[in-house]
Amino acid sequence: MKNERSLVAFTLLTQTAVGGFWTMELIYKALSPLGHGPAEIAVAFPVIVLGGAIAVAAISSLAHLGSPRNAWLAVSNLRTSWLSREIILFAAFAIAGGFVALGHWTASASLLHPYFVLFASAIGALLIVAISNVYRLETHPAWNSVRTTLAFLLTSILLGGSLTGTIILAESPPMYDDHGLSEIITLAAVLQMILHVPRRPKVEGETRTEWESLYRNLLPRMILRTGLLCIAAILFGIEPFIPSATLALWITGTLLLCASELLGRTLFYDYRIRIGL
């Protein structure tokens, strides 16, 4: 697991940035009828946090390369390599998201045009799909499933949505209305509970025995992650009914989701088994 820490950092930070971008723009659009000032105030700090997440993700990705000076070689196989596509899409999302952020800071209508925001959001979704497909290898049957892609997308919603929503709530409580975000996070947490248990690969012999042993060893951590997701889902689910404790519930729920997704990513690497070459 030690050799994968930079990849864990890259994937989780990128997913947080993409999910946070989606959340920020949805809340910005919802607040726009209140006027330019309130909407811009609400998203000001998330812009900084999400920009920082993208910057740190880029640095962590370079840390995984044997020689960062050769990073440009990773994009040389765009036609067949999901890794190359991931790098290109990461750069495209960083640039497109940066222009949208600039639009928020400068009140530039052209940079905040709905079609441009939609384009940046779509690039973000494609980026998450590309990141997940990097891991969908035939030689790693526990990873090679559409469940991996769905789980990565759910992580983006959980981390980006909860973190950005909490920041906006703490920054602008008089304007607070999550516009259904807490319900979306609750649903995403429930779906993640269903998906997080690894698919048992169709293997036989020694590989099957290895998988069964690995599964038993990791089961306590899987149960712990399920518990964290369950508690977070309950907190976000009851939040609309307890307005006096809204901020406390969001902060607690966000911390639980961060812990569950970090645990989930370490499990993701630990329960892999390799077959074939």
Structural summary, described in words:
- It is a single chain.
- The protein is mostly helical.
- The chain has one domain: Formate dehydrogenase/DMSO reductase fold (Up-down Bundle), CATH 1.20.1630.
- It is 73% helix and 0% strand.
- The protein is built from 8 helices and no strands.
Short description, anyone?
With 277 residues, the protein is mainly α. The protein is built from eight helices and no strands. It has a single domain, classed as Formate dehydrogenase/DMSO reductase fold.
Please report which band the strand proportion falls in: under 5%, 5-15%, 15-25%, 25-35%, 35-45% or over 45%. Answer: under 5%
CATH architectural grouping: Up-down Bundle
Secondary-structure-derived class: mainly alpha
Largest sheet: none
Gyration radius (Cα, Å) is 20 Å
Number of helices: 8
Straight-line N-to-C gap:
21 Å
Residue-averaged pLDDT: 83
The tally of strands reads: 0
CATH class membership: Mainly Alpha
Reading the helices and strands in chain order gives: HHHHHHHH
| Poorly predicted runs of 5 or more residues | none
Question: Could you say which overall geometry the principal axes of the C-alpha atoms support?
Answer: globular
